Amino acid sequence: MQLLDKRTAAVLTTILLFIAVGAFLYGARRVLIVFLLAILFAYLLEPWVSRFQHWERVSRGSRSLAILEVYAILCSALTTLFVLIGPRIVDEAKMLAEALPALFEKLSSGQIAMQIGSSRGWSYSTQIRLQQFIAGHSDAILGWVSVAGARAAAAAQNAIWIVLIPILAVFFLKDGRSFTEDILELVDRRQQKQFLTGITDDLNEMLAHYIRSQLILAGLSLAVYMAVLSLLRVPYALALGAGAGVMEFIPVVGPLLGAVAILGVGFLANYHHLIVVAAFLAIWRLVQDYVTTPRLMGGKLELHPLVIVFAVLVGAEIGGVIGVYLSIPIAATLRIVWRRWQRVFAGGHPNIRAA
To answer: How many CA atoms lie within 13 A of 130 on its CB side?
Structure first.
C-alpha cells in the first residue's frame, strides 16, 4: 500500500515548491529590489532612447548608440546641476549635521523651551511648563530620532546598490523587448498569449507614465522648496529643500517626512516664522495632491485613495522605504492583471478598458 497517492504527492510537491520560491524571494529580496528599480529607471529613459534611435542623423538607427547618447546627456545635466548648486547644498548639509547634536542636547534638557519662550515674550510660567513637558518626553523624542538615524545609516550602507541601477538599466533598455517577446513565445495557447500580451502593453504604459510623473512631481517640489525656504530665510534652506524634494519621489510617506524635517529643524533652530512655513507646506501639499498630481497622472492608475493608503502601509511594513515606493505600482499591476483576466478568461465585455 502506497503511503501517499499521486494527488496527495502532487499537492505536497506544489506546497513545497511555493515555500522554496518564497524562501528564495525573501533571501534574494535586495537583489530583486535592485532589478526592479533598474527596470523602473529603464522605463524612465525609454522614451528618450526610442526618440534618439529614430533620429538617423543622431544615432544612425543604432539602439546601443542611442542609449550611450542618452546616458551622456543625463550625466552632463547632472554634473552641470551639481556644479551650480551642489557645493552650497553640501556645505549646508555639513553645517546642519554639525549643529544637530547641540540642538538635540537643548531639546533633551528642555533648554530650548526657555530659549524660544524668552525670544517670543512668553511668560516665565509658560516657559517652565513647556520645559518640563519636553524634558519629560525627551526619551521618547530621542528614541524616534535614533530610530530614524539608524534607518538612514542602513540606507547609506546600501547606497552602493544605487550604482548598479543605471548599469542594469542598460541591459533592459537594449534587450527588454526581446526578453518580452521570448517570454510570450513560450506560451502556445492563443488565449494565454492574448492575456500576457495585454498585461505587458498595459504595464508598459502604466509604469512609464507613473515614473515620469513621480520624477516631475519631485523636481517641482525640490525647486519650490528650495526657492521658498530660501526666500523665507529658513535655516539650512537649500539642504532641507533638496532633501524634502527628493523625498517627494516616495508616495504619501515622503512628503510627510520632508515636512516634519523642515518644521523640526526650524523649531530646533528657533526660527521665528514657523507658522508661515507650516502654512506654505500645507498649501503646497494641496496644490500637489489636487492640482498637479491629477493633471500629471491623468487617471492612469485608476486606484481609489483608500487602496493607495492601504498599499503604502503594507509596503512600508514589508519593505520599508523601498516597499512604500513600489507599493503603488504593484497595486496598479494587480489591478491590470485582474481586469485583463476578466476580459480574456471571464467573458468580460471587449470594450472594457484596462488600466
So the answer is: 16
